[in-house]
Design brief:
This protein has a five-stranded mixed beta sheet with strand order 2-1-3-5-4. It has helices spanning about 10-30, 40-50, 70-80, 85-110, 115-120, 130, 140-155, 155-170, 175-190, 195-215, 225-230, 240-250, 255-270, 280-295, 305-340, 355-385, 390-405, 420-425, 440, 450-460, 475-480, 480-485, 495, and strands at about 410-415, 430, 465-470, 485-490, 500-505. α1 packs antiparallel against α4 (about 85-110). By secondary structure, the protein is mainly alpha-helical. The protein contains 23 helices and five strands. It is about 65% helix and about 5% strand. β1, α18 and β2 form a beta-alpha-beta unit. The longest helix has about 35 residues, at about 305-340.
Length: about 500
């Protein structure tokens, strides 16, 4: 569907810039205080790098526990401008979400399906799943991948190579986009190979891989194997079954049922009339298959990159509705003209061109109302998200700051979740999940929970302090603690705002 309406290039660029600025500002204002535990591991890498302590979590321990080297290095640079890395990371996320919407819009414009582009502009920035990943590398990763596809479709292969390489440095699975575009080029384009783009892609990745091999002794972050080990726990669920868990978040709201129906129509419409979108949706499918095969434990941020594909299908469903209405109006007009010719003597008038144009605009109006309704409904969910910050994050920060102010700088702290606590404590950390020390993850095996790994950790690392949330690691409490640890500090739930009490134990 093409409206035939074009803006001057200068005004078009101005409107896009205004869109990015407005959406980024609104999202940042609403979600600047939001955050969760995992990204704080990356913040600490960035903080230590900025302080000259190396690309490490614990100074002196060369272990790659962050999955996003580019995001860590970007935050390290920004650390010189502000020490509030969590807020800076949220600002990057806000801008990335807006830019992601722009790239979907650009694809819709380039592929002659502007309704899909409008869906990208309004439904993607208001869909809560990417928004709850604020502060992490995920929004930036999605924007870079969408950008690589958008520039590729415009045959700007060098720009696409830059964005694909940056996406891979933001998260290793970004390589899927590069592979997908390469395969698409070989099968569909078949023009002279863009060696310049290939050289650019390789030259951007090579320095990091060389550094990682020399500095860490390996290329991929240890957290991949850890998440796979976690997926084997009896208390865990792997990525593919976890997808139903994510769907369950949205089944209670009417707007998502409507979107699901539109997405189903969109699948049909893509197959029949909009096959060009198969390129982007192939990335969505390839991503889902890859994570399912990896067998990693489900984490909500793993599912956010699926959202652009879903929004595209919703947009295609809307585009199908507009097209069907226009075809119906055309047939109605043709039939009226035919009947009018047959009974011209009766002075009945055929549908005029003005009436036909009116009916065409009516189809756009219906689609516009549907899109606006869905956007407003999703916007209410965004507002709810802004008023429900994670109380656990606040509690963990309180614990971390107490540790920093009341323990020796050489103290070793152990905990199950170490992102927020470790960032604010600024102490050496060892975690019971094995994110920081791969040998801890090896103890998980096919255990039911983290107890065995926790017992092995305290026996082999002898931490000075252990942080435990009430109800966690009961076997550890009953055994090791009785002989080696005493309660040092009790963080009451009614003070921290978290539902559970948190205890800090000092251990001999």
């Amino acid at each position: 569907m093409n409206t035939g309406f074009k803006l001057p290039a200068s005004l078009y660029k101005l409107l896009l810039m205004l869109y990015v600025a407005t959406v980024s500002f609104i999202l940042y204002i609403l979600l600047s205080n939001n955050g969760y535990d995992d990204p704080f591991i990356t913040y600490r890498y960035a903080h230590n790098l900025a302080r000259g302590l190396g690309f490490v979590y614990n100074p002196g321990e060369r272990i790659l526990s962050t999955t996003t080297p580019l995001f860590a290095m970007l935050l390290a640079l920004l650390n010189f401008a502000t020490s509030d890395l969590p807020r800076m990371a949220n600002l990057i996320s806000a801008i990335s979400i807006a830019v992601g919407g722009i790239f979907i819009w650009d694809l819709g414009r380039n592929w002659k399906t502007p309704v899909v582009g409008w869906a990208g502009l309004f439904l993607y920035p208001t869909f809560t799943l990417p928004l709850i990943t604020f502060g992490s590398e995920t929004p930036l990763y999605i924007a870079l991948c969408l950008g690589a596809i958008a520039y590729y479709t415009r045959q700007r292969y060098s720009a696409a190579a830059v964005l694909a390489a940056l996406g891979t440095l933001t998260r290793p699975d970004g390589i899927l986009v590069a592979v997908l575009l390469a395969v698409h080029f070989l099968l569909r384009i078949r023009r002279p190979v863009p060696w310049k783009a290939i050289l650019i892609f390789g030259s951007l990745l090579a320095p990091w891989f060389l550094f990682a091999w020399l500095y860490f002794g390996y290329l991929l972050p240890v957290t991949l194997a850890v998440k796979q080990q976690q997926g084997t726990l009896a208390i865990s669920q792997t990525f593919a079954p976890g997808f139903l868990w994510i769907i369950g978040w949205y089944k209670g709201s009417w707007q998502y049922w409507l979107e699901a129906a539109l997405a189903i129509i969109g699948v049909y419409w893509m197959v029949r009339k909009a096959s060009q979108w198969a390129l982007l949706l192939s990335w969505t499918g390839l991503y889902f298959i890859s994570y399912s095969l990896l067998g990693v434990s489900r984490y909500f941020w793993y599912y956010a990159p699926l959202v652009p594909g879903y929004i595209v299908l919703v947009g295609l469903g809307l585009d199908a509705i507009a097209h069907i209405m226009q075809v119906a109006n055309f047939k109605s007009s043709s039939q009226s003209i035919s009947e009018s010719n047959k009974i011209e003597s009766s002075n009945q008038r055929a549908v005029s061109p003005r009436q036909s144009a009116f009916r065409q605009r009516a189809s756009y109006l219906v689609v516009g109302i549907l899109l606006a309704t869905l956007t407003v409904a999703q916007a209410f969910d965004v507002h709810k998200l802004s008023t429900t910050s994670d109380s656990r994050a606040i509690a963990y920060r309180t614990v971390g700051e107490w540790i920093r102010n009341n323990t020796h700088s050489d103290s070793l702290i152990s905990s199950l979740e170490i992102g927020i606590i470790g960032y604010y404590a600024d102490r050496r950390m060892v975690d019971f999940a094995g994110l920081l020390q791969p040998e801890v993850a090896e103890q998980l095996g096919s255990s039911e929970n983290y107890d065995r790994a926790a017992i092995w950790t305290v026996e082999n690392y002898s931490p000075d302090y252990v942080v435990l949330v009430k109800g966690d690691l009961r076997t550890l409490r009953q055994g090791y603690f009785g002989e080696h640890c005493l309660l040092e500090k009790h963080f009451q739930s009614d003070v921290t705002g978290y539902a559970e009490n948190i205890n800090l134990y000092a251990c001999r």
